[in-house]
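Need tokens for this chain, all 285 residues.
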Amino acid sequence: MKVLLEPNRTKDHCYRVTAQAAQILHEAGAKVFVAEPEAKECLPDFVELLKGDLSEFSAVVAFGGDGTLLSAAHRAADFGVPLVGVNLGTVGFLTEVEPKDIGLLVRLTTGAYSLEERMMLSILLYRGDKVIYETNALNDCIVSRGGTPRSIPLVLQSDGKTLKTLLGDGVIVATPTGTTAYSLSAGGPIVEPMAESITITPICAHALYAKAFVLRPERVVSILIGPMEGKEAWLSGDGVESVPLCSGDRIVVHRSRLTTRIVKFGNDNFYDILKEKLMDRSEKK
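Here are the structure tokens for all 285 residues:
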């Protein structure tokens, strides 16, 4: 079997945890790959450099926080490759393995794990009638203002029907997986990750009533950018890259044909994970 390791060099000093994982997987009979030449130089000689796509791979292992896992998800989802995260970040809500439990990765070679199929979003940016940018997201699509603290005008639509016209710092369109990320910080609801829905959460809207909307997964969400008048706005999918927006732009978000296949080694309850990872310290006492 082939396994791709996706390390974050700012989280994994000298690739120490990645090297441990590589050794464990190699001894279990897996062929181990990395995508970055810099990582290859710091890892054991048996680790190979990825030269093609992931069509023949059995797993991707991401080392870092949730951001690292989200970046890896974009690569893995294209080929339906199972993805597991090793938590080297602050919260690591999406990751499955702590560094002290790195030995669990051997179970990738025996099939002793389960998979969760997580819904993703397809994001298309229209300028006029032309699609100028598109991507997929496991967590969310975010439209946000630039560095200058000036509200941006937005129109939110579902299947062409206007839900809300607002001024604010932006809007988040989230999958169930993404509702425990930025959407939660913006006051949005928590949705179980295996549910299927689309959540729209305004960010700091200048309005008395600007609540989140939870929609059926079949809905097509549109975000229309109003007159910017010198203001800045940006589009981002999972925070992987940011694209500048202009007056009249239209962002269309709908359920993607892709899913992210998350590896689970245990039977941890979602609400136990929620309590452990996100509960305020004062509440834990």
